[in-house]
Amino acid sequence: MIARVEPLTTTRRLSGPFDYRVDDDCTQIGSIVKIPFGHQKLEGVVVGLAETSDVPDEKLVAPTSVRDDSLPRDLVDLALWMAEEYCSTPARALALVTPPPGKAKTYLWAEPTGAHGKLTDKQRALLERLPGPTNNDLPALRRLEARGLVTITPRVARRAPRTNPAPDREVELTAAQTDALREIEAAPGEARLLHGVTGSGKTEVYLRAAARALDRDEGVIVLVPEIALTPQTVARFAARFGDTVALVHSALSDGERYDEWRRLRVGEARIAVGPRSAVFAPVEKLGLIVVDEEHDASYKHEGDPRYDARHVAEYRAYQAHARLLGGSATPRPETVHRTRRLRLPARVAGGRDLPPVRVLDMRESQHPLHPETRRALTAARKSIVLLNRRGWSNFLTCKSCGKAWECPRCEVALVLHRAERGLACHHCGHREPIPTRCDNCGSLAVARHGAGTERVEAELQQALDVPVFRLDADTTATKDAVPELLARFQAAPRGLLLGTQMVAKGHDFPDVTLGVVLDADSTLRFPDFRAEERTFALIAQLAGRAGRGPSGGRVLVQTRSPTAASIEAAARHDADGFLTGELERRRALRYPPFADLIRVVTRAHDQAAARAAAAHIAEAIDAPQTELLGPAPLFRLRDRERFQIVLKTTARADAIAATGAAVEATARDKAFRDVNFSVDVDPV
Ligand SMILES: [Zn+2]
Ligand SMILES: [Zn+2]
């Protein structure tokens, strides 16, 4: 028999699969094997079996070993689909779905057989404590085993990840929740979007839908955004379903990660919960995939393949004929366009109506805080303030000659971080000391422009008599920092939670009565077709954090674009109005969902090489119903000159195939040896 093996290597210049001879019966599609490959030994995945090979018999070699853990076949198929869908390689896609390294941890378990024999007092006492682990009594138990009085067998010990299960409270479903659940149940193999305002009880619908799936003996995958920021969903699943929930995320120890994978693979656990990579969980008989907060940008993976877990979830649901259930208070326009929506229009009993939102025009303002914001912050006991910009000042210039401080490796402004006494590049991590004089003209007048979270923290601390809790990438570098900071804010009698978009994610603090967005148009200024969508979602999500308790609340939005459609709609809580307008705009401009986008970026030290490679690819792409934009230069990043091509297409499959072929041909061309390529299908 011939096994067709994809070696797990990252190079693009190698195209498998390669044939190996296998003599055993245990090698199957999905087996993970060690193979001799040239002068190296590589791990590989068996992606096909055949009777014959084009390789002559004497040249065929056998794998040197087969791993005990194997991939289920549907994950092999999924990876091969991803390789094509994202113009990547089978090996890179397979690397995402292969089991984590490790082995089950075992211990010995002894049970009495019921047979009788002459026993000492010590032996009798020993038998009385059984069944149980052998622990230090193994030698004595072995002697009893030899006499047929006990059996000793290995058992698998679980290294369980730490969770903080929330107390599970019985709740009665609202009419809207009942209707939604009925619709989901009535449509096996279909997708539904649960569009419900924050606090409308989406999680309870997920939980019930999961329980129904378990009743049918089906497995479930629940995708959530970053776990540290949204621990409630995980906690509620753990509380309701106990050990049948496996947690799949990057903060687990190696042993925990392996055990959770194995428990899913053998069916001990039936529900996988985790961020985007949980979409690859080896769940058997998959019946339901939930994508919570489906608008969240963290579902997009930035490595190669640049997959989108939401799109991969669609494919897995299609493979398994499973139900797909997305949920959000601010769903993406494309999901709304193509998925049947189930509405949860009101907050569940005990929750207040959504808080009123007031837009504050900052066009004339000299000060970062509007007087009304200042008054409201002074009066509120608990508030959340969002500013989507880290650091102290976002750029520095020389007042005499105009020099702007830029990263030497990237064409971007350096951001001043005062606590670290340095300037930092937010793209490559470059750091340098704060300048005291201009190195261009010698002037001592260095101006600092703009305000980030660090500076606003200092200003708020000075202006208000309230403890400020800052939540951004600078204050949460360590693993447990986010939950600790959120717990401290929750416990504090008074406080202000200040931070980047992290503060607008799913937390639930009932005593927060004020939400503030500073510089709401910072997301609008991104040259990106999703700018409106992001701005709307950010304001609406923050509004969802405020006024959840009995004392209600309100939201203030400071902006220099008070009439922007996304800001006006968010202030009215008008998701439908926003979605209608946004879909019209996208239809007119041929943006998703009315066309698909594919972006190709070339990177090289040498600008001419990067440009030539991009031009070569653009030249080679031949796809119908496809508009090609570029090559256009991008700003230099990490010392690499970059060019991009963007395809706008209504023939998705053709355009992906043509792009993949063009990139592959260019990557193989020796003339472009020093150029790196990345392809992003559905860039976000
Ligand atoms: Zn100067
Ligand atoms: Zn840089």
Each distinct ligand: zinc ion
Average the pLDDT over all residues and give the rounded result. Answer: 92
User: How many domains, in number, for the residues?
Assistant: 5
Portion of residues in beta strands equals 15-25%
Biggest sheet: strand arrangement: 11-12-10-13-14-9-15
Query: What distance lies between the first and last C-alpha atoms, to the nearest angstrom?
Result: 44 Å
**Individual helix count:** 18
Inertia-based shape: globular
| Helix-and-strand structural type | alpha/beta
CATH class of the largest domain: Alpha Beta
CATH topology of the largest domain: Rossmann fold
Summary?
By secondary structure, this protein is of the alpha/beta class. Helices cover 30% and strands 24% of the residues.
Notes on the protein architecture:
The structure is a single chain. This protein is of the alpha/beta class and 684 residues long. The protein has five domains: 2-97, PriA, 3(prime) DNA-binding domain (GIY-YIG endonuclease, 3-Layer(aba) Sandwich); 105-116 and 123-157; 175-344, 3-Layer(aba) Sandwich (Rossmann fold); 357-391 and 452-589, P-loop containing nucleotide triphosphate hydrolases (Rossmann fold), CATH 3.40.50.300; 596-681, Alpha-Beta Plaits, CATH 3.30.70.600. It is built from 18 helices and 30 strands. The model has no long low-confidence stretch (mean pLDDT 92). The chain binds zinc ion (2 copies). The site of one zinc ion has 7 residues, from loops.
